Amino acid sequence: MKTIAIPQFYCGPSGQKGLYNRQEVGLARAFAALGCRAVVLYPAPGAAAPTVENPEPNVKIYYLPVRKLGAQAFFSSWQVLLDEQVDAVHVMGDNSPGVPSLYRFCRKHGILFYSQLGALKSTSGRAVVRAVMDLLLHRNLAVYKKTPTFAKTPAVAAELQSLGVPCAGLMPVGLDTAIIPDVPGTRADLRRALKLDVDAKIFVFVGRLDAYKKPLDLVPLLEAAPDWQAVIIGQGTQGAELARLLAARGLAARCRMIPQLPNESVHVYYHACDAFVNLNDQEIFGMSLLEAMFAGCPPVARHAPGPDLIIEDGLSGWLCSTVPQLAEALGRITPEMGAAAQRRINEHFLWQNSAELALTLLPAKGNRHG
Q: What is the pLDDT of residues 308-325, one digit of tens each?
């Protein structure tokens, strides 16, 4: 049985215990379903000792003490890879400065190292941090040039090629269907339960209310689409300003703002709404976009690397550049698009697809550890 390790170098909220839709765990489940063992390594800054979870057969999660610099983790040891008899590491480290040390350890011990990259340049809001991270990126590029390197989107594939890194192919992010609840009932039934207007046209926005997600553009969008109502699920630094602007423009009565919801409830809204809106023009992938489409909620999205790959423009949703275009596209949403969106995710954007591609890198028989 092959053992695949999936390390996380980011110390932000995405890998924290109890949070929903951790990409590493979704991928681990997919490897396990294909007959492998998967070991996820999350950083635990400030922890005195490692902790371990075994959420299901052949999936193991470590929380390891690390040194932290900003949002970046530095693991003091990779001994766990030998303890777990790991055959390969699946690295989503992008520009993380801890990547070269992991590569050196894998090379020394004969462990396959390969990458699935979603971004190369730093997106920090601080110019100094961006400059330092972009400078350190050259160390990672030297590693990626020597090892199988996959891109999550065509935009990243093109960037890799421009930087002299051979791209092994596309390996998109996937959806972890194990954590998606069943939502029974018709749209009308769901709306009555949620106390939404059964006859209204309603779109849903799910995401951080921070500048990079462009939530303030919901104001001119609602002005340009006067027949639509909005459900806005999320919180962030622009939440108060968004609420103020909606009230000042007389739009608050057409909106329902929900700072936070359990995952199960978010999926009910996907099924209850006519469309999903994504405004981020730098969206690398967008897990909520995948979830909405899986639920049959057709997307209207700004052009960005993730949506451009996921959405078949005019078939499984609409791709736009400006707010007026987004408003006009809402009027062209059809029920058939919802069914096409669902098919698109089922056929191309599940973690199983990524796991199957990754396993082609490993020998079909035998085990490195005997």
A: 999 999 999 999 999 999
